[in-house]
Sequence to fold (163 residues):
Amino acid sequence: MKIGLISDTHDNLQNVRKAVREFNDNHVDVVIHAGDFVSPIAVESLAGVKLVGVLGNNDTDIPGLTSTFNKIHGELKGEIFESVYDGMKFAVYHGTNLAKKDQLIKSGKYDVFIYGHTHRKDNRYIGTTRVINPGTAKGWFFGLFATIAVFDTSSRNLEFINL
Ligand code: MN
Fold:
């Protein structure tokens, strides 16, 4: 299966719409958002994909975000989301608390660990855990390009896409 990865959209609605088009063109089965939507309106623009998300440090309007997730039939999972996709154990955490992030990665419990927050792309192994950050979909934040990613669970290939 193909999993769309996106993080730190920070209300860039234009890029969110571009990301939805990319995810649909890539026929992803699910889209994981690693947090920092910021306002509920940014979630509404993700309608059209099967969305699962976790809360970032800037996601303070939890009632508003929850209601928008419900409206687009998405699932807002709180701070940490764990799931098994295609036999691989995933954990998703925004990465606000560095110690907590390290602890989750180094627990060795996960095949894939997804995070955001740093706005920097990451794709490496720490122990047996594949550690992935799709970068920021907002773009030009700290001078960085806007990126998302698609992970293929069969080939384990990760493709970064510039928005
Ligand atoms: Mn953040």
Residues 2-162 form a domain with the Purple Acid Phosphatase; chain A, domain 2 fold (CATH 3.60.21.10). The longest strand covers residues 80-85.
